[in-house]
Model the fold of this input.
Amino acid sequence: MSFERKIILGSFTLGLVLWIIDAAIDYAVFYRGSFLDLLILAVPGHEVYVRLLVLVSFLLFGVVVARLVSARIRAEESLRESEEKYWRLIETSPYCITIHQDEKVVFSNQAMAQLLGVETPQQLMGRSIFDAIPPDRMDALRDRIRRLMAGETGLYPVEDVYYRQDGSTVPVEVTVIPFTYRGRPANQAIVLDITDRKRAEVLLQESEERYRLLVETSPYAIGIHQDGKLVFANEAAVKLLGANDTGQLVGMPIEKIIHPDTRSQSIARMQGMLAGQTDLYPAEDRYVRLDGTVAPVEVTVAPFLFKGQSAFQVIAMDITDQKQAEESLRRSEQKFRSYVDHAPDGIFVANEQGQYIDVNPAACRITGYPKEELVGKGIIDMIPPEEQAKAIKHFETVVKTGSVAGDTPIEFLRKDGSRGYWTVDGVRLSDTRFLGFVKDVTDRKKLEQQLRQAQRMEAIGHLAGGIAHDFNNLLTVINGYSELVLNRLSRNDYGFNELQQIQQAGERAQSLTRQLLAFSRKQILQPQVLNLNQLLAEMEKMLRRLIGEDIGLVSVYSPDLRFIMADPSQLEQVVLNLAVNARDAMPAGGKLTLETKNVYLDETYAQNHADAEVGMHVMLAISDNGQGMDRETLVRIFDPFFTTKEVGKGTGLGLATVYGIVKQSGGSIYVYSEPGQGTTFKIYFRAIESTESSEAAQSTQAEMMQQGTETVLVVEDEEAVRELVSIVLEKYGYTVLQALDSEEALSLLQQKPVDLLLTDVVMPGLSGRFLADQALSLQPDIEILYMSGYTDNAIVHHGVLDEGTNFIQKPFSPQALLQTIRQVLDNGVRSS
Done:
């Protein structure tokens, strides 16, 4: 049964129960009747109709409630799906997309990284938007952005030139859209590599020039007539008609040129062509020269637009000297072939079965097939099965009418299996031959979809904040009046319980609006200087009651923790939400670990984490040893209204609220989790400190870095982490061996001596603990250092590692890594 039907059935049941209660009250109280009795007394003799009216009112109320609830659910689902599609589209889009704030890149997709010649989008994070711009264009770009933010329109798209990483340049077309990103004004840049387009423009210009030369130097007489008068004639037409120049022909009535004997047939052919008849041209005709002589010609007439008005183009050939005409035709075909070979769009000739007979290079480029493979293939074979019916109907138009306008994009399959969109124009050349023109509009189609998604996402922030603020105003009235009326009633008064339910529902709705405001980062914060250890210590008693007796609470607070600036009530909500999620992830019990620590985030870390800032931070880590999450869930974990809980057990706003509070407080949040291995949330808040102390911390850490000559085996299933560690160690003199799992690591250990094994704790297949045991059996003198996204306390308390093991927590800075490795190697304390 659907949710809407359940609401209707419940409302009907409620109405029926109220009807029965009212009837019972009538018999129980003789003179003190109900409100329904008053209605019956007011309308004597119509008791049945009044009672029926009340029952129908209850039913209508139930239907309205069901409609409203159903619409609400659909709207929430639509919002969630729109956001998912938007980010998936942005990150996988072939278009280069960046977001920049304060002239700094804060987001980039992979396409932009490829365009600029870097490996990952993270390498672009924090860079100035002017790094890729020639110096002489910077002022113009700044001026355009300033005018755009001031509301001026018509500034984009513009063409520009970007520098790539290797110093080369690439022509681009840039469109910049101002919008709000994470609560601050920002600009989204959509960049299109127009190298091919520039090349195509050059080819098109050359093609148009060749066409102009073709018309002007053509041996065929070419003329255009509108409203029965000649409006254009080339030199061949001047020669054919025996005129001195084109001035003698322009304005001449077409009837004066066509011989009287063939005039009616010529006009009938043109009218028949406009009516859709085929096989009317080419046709033989007779033209009258200015000196009165007659020239037999073969003409082709075609309707087209000339200067915005309907016209006919006439191509006439003097067939008096057939040999001269054949030579002229040969030269014309050569020029046409040159145009076809250099055309930016695909051109093909197909037989009546729809098989390619000839194709130009552009058609091969669009489809991905070489010419020898494309010739002989059927046109329909390149259309996906689900689109073939539409394509067949499209191509049948060519057969029936002789031509077709390809305005509708049709999906097609390339040789590599990828899909694209093209438009197909065609004209029938003969009974068995068709000339077709295909234009690849894949990029245009994707851009249209992307723009639609961007417009939807632009409204989400306004929608969340707007609904919350407006709904809060309504709830203020609802809750206020409910409280006023409840204060005037006693518990035994009629309607007291119902009104109390309304008030409770209003309070729950008010809580939901607060969550929406937190997500949209529009709630009012009251930050103050506070010590995170003290706040957590005061919450421990409440947290123990919240998580239950079957979950142990472990707290590991750094004694010299620095102060932060934040709203304590909002931080309490963050901790409570994460604790509730951890409790739900441990239905059979477990351990919840709270940990604080002073952490210095360096430039390397900030470059690889878009939200991170360089400097001293206070870290809050909340870990559990529950069910954990897979990669698909982690991608969407902070999405509003996304939840893995059963219906009725979560709104999906908990973690979205946490994210909004942390970001509005100037912090950053990261999550590390794997199925069956638990979850760790790490939140970084900027520590309150002077510039001098930050510089001293960096200097102290720099002094602690030391060179090394030992061999280190790095075992990590995340390629980005493995590569970063290897680069850092090799830079400081270490010999680095890499392995993506335990099996590959054991194979290397059997071949080469290793001084230190640096391994992740949780990996696919064999764990890091098992690998360490096997490594010690193969090389007893090897040193072991574990690394994990979980905190060391969470790892130890969850029983993954033993007390006293060498451990470094992700994310770590290069300085911390080098220092830890140096300590392990120098101290010679082996962990297992």
Notes: Confidence is low (pLDDT under 50) at residues 453-459, 518-522, 690-704.
